[in-house]
Amino acid sequence: MQRPPPEDFSLKETRPHLGGGKISGDKLTSTYDLVEQMQYLYVRVVKAKELPGKDLTGSCDPYVEVKLGNYKGTTRHFEKKSNPEWNQVFAFSKDRIQASFLEVTVKDKDVVKDDLIGRVIFDLNEVPKRVPPDSPLAPQWYRLEDRKSDKVRGELMLAVWFGTQADEAFPEAWHSDAATVSGSDALANIRSKVYLSPKLWYLRVNVIEAQDLIPGDKGRYPEVYVKAIMGNQALRTRVSQSRTINPMWNEDLMFVAAEPFEEPLILSVEDRVAPNKDEVLGRCAIPLQFLDRRFDHRPVNSRWYNLEKHIMVDGEKKETKFASRIHMRICLEGGYHVLDESTHYSSDLRPTAKQLWKPNIGVLELGILNATGLMPMKTKDGRGTTDAYCVAKYGQKWIRTRTIIDSFTPRWNEQYTWEVFDPCTVVTVGVFDNCHLHGAEKNGGAKDSRIGKVRIRLSTLETDRVYTHSYPLLVLHPNGVKKMGEIHLAVRFTCSSLLNMMYMYSLPLLPKMHYIHPLTVSQLDNLRHQATQIVSMRLTRAEPPLRKEVVEYMLDVGSHMWSMRRSKANFFRIMGVLSGLIAVGKWFEQICNWKNPITTVLIHLLFIILVLYPELILPTIFLYLFLIGVWYYRWRPRHPPHMDTRLSHADSAHPDELDEEFDTFPTSRPSDIVRMRYDRLRSIAGRIQTVVGDLATQGERVQSLLSWRDPRATALFVLFCLIAAVILYVTPFQVVALLIGIYVLRHPRFRYRLPSPPLNFFRRLPARTDCML
Q: Where is this region: Disordered (predicted)?
């Protein structure tokens, strides 16, 4: 039995105060019912009018300062404008409010000292409270006052209210807990955002043939191939076997394309004139937006494309068109699902074409509450600090929470929703440290550091139940596994139709095109790499960007690389699966050896009953499985699965194995270390080679039973088969089964320690090992 994981690395069930606890019927009044309510004071500064001039020219450069205790937020300023419009929202966390008055001041920006134009003061006890779905509070005009509370010229349009994070103004508001961050770029980098992955297609290029090529050297047989380039993807066909000016290939090239289609497909027909020298015989560029789209296995029409060639005339590049052309069948495949995630952790399995989608079966709701015990990720002003944010991915929708500045116990309390089309999918939540608080150009190329991630498989969740757990954030470092903190999540999977969801379990996991026209393993690996690169590039170009290191960590890029630790873990997983069969084998050996005579006698009786009444065998097996399932229901898992350091062998990995896992590809380690690792890999491969050879030997011995490779052994086996056939023809099957069973279960005093004659005969059969060099 496995020991329980260390307490620090375990999953903890929690009971947070979700939704503020306000119940109305069977629903919470807030739509944010999976997070704890956070109260904010909102100030919307809309505009001002008739502001007086303060400088010598009689004009003013106004801006607004919103001050609450020690917290102060400012709007942008306008030059020489007496009727400015800002329409900015400020949010002050109620937990940190220590003042009893809110001061909103209009100032004139000056070189030496900013002048006061006027101010408005609010008593917080008189500020109204707003709870969605109430309509937004209408802003009002307020007359400005000076420091002596006398009315002055100018008015300011404001709206002030208390609300929660469910307020529509929350995502775009300036937050008091981010008061140290300045600049529009930096503020954009800390706000919450929803992203959508680009729509990905597989592009199939079936290169059939070319006609009337004109090679440069007409005195030799051309060695022609086709090279296709799309973006940073490049593939080529094999050299045509028909070495003529009309070569044939009939070969498929597969690419990944993303909407909107920005780059054309460029094909070039090339002739290998020397080992490292190729001559371009013609090119063509094909825009993707005009290509046929295929939704099933029926082939699209093929087309002939004219080839163009550039030649140099008087030092200038000129284009010549001639009769050479290429025959191809090109289409965008809508019936496949473009794999951009690891197949083990897929969050979406739908085909590309929207018309092939089935209705959704439910809704996934995720509440990202808070994190505790985070480690300092960087140093600022001589002390450790962390600016944490979360990213969650499910399907094509990515979400990013706001960044909580300088906190080891950040509270996000943000809730998000996804449509679910298949229960056998995984939602991934990652936590990162924001290294771009001062804009991308000032951070010196730093990357957002990973703090950890959590995966939750929807099929392991009960429907309509709210799971509130604190998950350990575990990250593998070159010096071992490290707990970086804990993240507190609330998850609910709501099913719209239980019947539809049960029906999903009978359907293929991937769209049917994956089974009708399957792609090879190497094709899928290459296409997945291209898809992750495209998704990463597109999301990096968003505003604010979801950075490449974040996307690659969420998509498990590099998980296919060699790891001694992971290989050990997978080996012990196989042993864990086989342990049940091994335990049954040991139990049967004890029955055969009469360790417990009463049990052995009962097994004899059961065996005789099943032989006499064979129609009871299958019902008995299924009834036994049913009873086991009902018995185990009492101990069914009540918590979602989480990262297991012992299963992953992360807590027992040797430092050198971890160093090898974190090595770059190709390696960047010294030659003596690489030589040592290579020798270690050779020794492991040698053992695997021996096991594979033994399996091959056993299979070849089975084949040699009838091959007459050993004439005496084959003659004995053929004679045995004849005798067995005659006996089985005249003897009822039940009698034969009964005799075999009683022989196998015979008492130990009738057994011998030596191997049985059939086993001895089998081991003497020849195999092809004699023919191996």
A: 1-24
